[in-house]
Amino acid sequence: MSATDPVPASNTARQHVRAPELAGTDWLNTGGERLRLAGLRGKIVLLDFWTSGCINCQHVIDELRPIEEEFGDVLVTIGVHSPKFTHEGEREAIAAAVERYGVYHPVLNDPAMTTWRQYAIKAWPTLVIVDPEGYIVHVAAGEGHGEALRRVVAELAEQHEAKGTLRRGGNPYVADETADTELRFPAKAVATSGGRLLVADTAGHGIAEFASDGETVVRRFGSGERGGRDGAFDVASFAEPSGLTLLPEAIAQRVGYHLVVADTAGHTLRGVDLSNGAVTTVAGTGEQWRDGDDEGKALDVDLTSPWDVCWWDEADGGPGAVVVAMAGNHTLGVFDPVEGTIRRLAGTTTEGLRDGPAAEAFLAQPSGLAVGRNRVWFVDAETSALRWIESDGGDGHAVYTAVGTDLFHFGHRDGKAAHALLQHPQGVAVLPDGTVGVADTYNGAIRSYAPATGEVGTISSGLAEPAGLVVADGEVFVVETGAHRLTPLATADADQVDGEALEVRRPATVLASGAVQLNVVFTPPPGQKLDERYGPSTRLEVSASPPELLVEGDGADTDLSRLIRLSDDVTEGVLQVVAQAASCDIDAEHPVCRVTRQDWGVPIRVERGGDGALSLMMSGNPGPAGA
């Protein structure tokens, strides 16, 4: 197989495949050097196919840290940045994401997705291991593969050390310079009753308190080191904090803290006592949720990348509670600080856009929250959508969409909501005039939505990745993440925008109409087996956009293989597949168990003569060197 031939995803378990050479426009974190796989012979190479706005990709960056540290003398990790959104393909945007998320390995910018196609990648994130002789030996899609990757790398290091084909020492990573600014990639802000502004300093791993001018820092909470330590304001640590909300004074007096922080990369909620600066963990264990219960005593429940928080008086129909945008599993949660409990409010964990009863709705990386009257507005970053949740008139809640259609269409277009388009919004606020302001992050704009008329407009543009909005004494500030600052909202440059509709462009898989065999391939990590102690260890959920594409085979079941039936009348669409598998150590007295999970959005085209089968690789081994 030549270096330009793609890796056949359905055959990788049977073939010994040489890794295609890397192709892209430019490199980051290499000091300007262009890397080639041929020049890395003797090293174990781990390719991480990612895109900066994908929450699962951000999780994988954290999963790789201990592996990179343990095998630093034999392993070279290369991030292959393959963008979903137009903005993500810009070099400046990638450089910002590399710094913000602490990516300490070389990154290849692959805006045309050339390397993506050569490796036949179908999902973000996907991890590929190349052995010291240049052959692909392991492929894994999704997150939760940390231990499996560690075992594969350890086994390769041992094998190639014995063969004399392993090269130790040296690493092509060169850190890029960073500017010294008061804030680094701030995310959200709230205003206190005294007129001060509290800002989540995400890459600074702390909370900064500004005077009412939005420029003068009064004090900070957090040591600036990345971590999850509780304690006094100057010793406590945070991990990429994002959302902030203030509790009502009566509630704060009862629980002993005033501010709730969504400590995103720490997978916790933190409470801050503004009177003495003390920081405590109030929800989450510090471990990332993978599967199972997500309700109960707040300190006993795993969370997953809480991105924003807001106080809602209408929550649970009682005295109110904190709504949590749980970006990591596409849900909304409710945290009761008085009872010390947390539970799910909306979403199924399937990524998508579907309205209806809250327990059945599909969400997609909710990233911003705001309360307006009897509802909570929220933005779903991955569906480029503005949505809301409110009481259904009974004991439950329902989810509705104002702007947005699905996971794959976006743009910058004003007008009627059904026609309007956003691009990966991350912030929302109810503005003084009653309209809903949206931090349209990847469009670099502040948009407005008028609930009364359904009109969408552009208030301000030319901003650097705005991710939050805060109203303070009638004045609106923008949290301008890419510019590392708070910016008063200016409207002088407002204009009506009628941009083109864009969509995520990836190679379509050509399938036949009628019956199609869907298979998800999962191979347990070395030394592990499927965990069937308490019943089936796997789960597969299938849906489609548009729904009419899938005639039969939708819904969830425990088998990773399924016969589905595609419509004769729908020629193209996206097959949405969610798979997970639980595995445990073999013959261990106290086995370590893990859940692997992946979401695919597979663009398909239905044609006569198309394939009658679709195989997706969640984890697999193409074969040992020399096979």
From TrEMBL:
SUPFAM superfamilies membership: NHL repeat, Thioredoxin-like
Q: Which InterPro entries match?
A: 6-blade_b-propeller_TolB-like, NHL2_NHL_rpt_dom, NHL_repeat, Thioredoxin-like_fold, Thioredoxin-like_sf, Thioredoxin_domain
What is a single molecular function from GO for this protein? Answer: isomerase activity
Keywords for the protein's UniProt record, in alphabetical order: Isomerase, Repeat
Task: Please list the residue ranges annotated as the Thioredoxin domain.
Answer: 1-158
PANTHER family the record matches: NHL REPEAT-CONTAINING PROTEIN 2 (PTHR46388)
According to UniProt, the name of this protein is: Thiol-disulfide isomerase/thioredoxin
Source organism per UniProt: Prauserella isguenensis
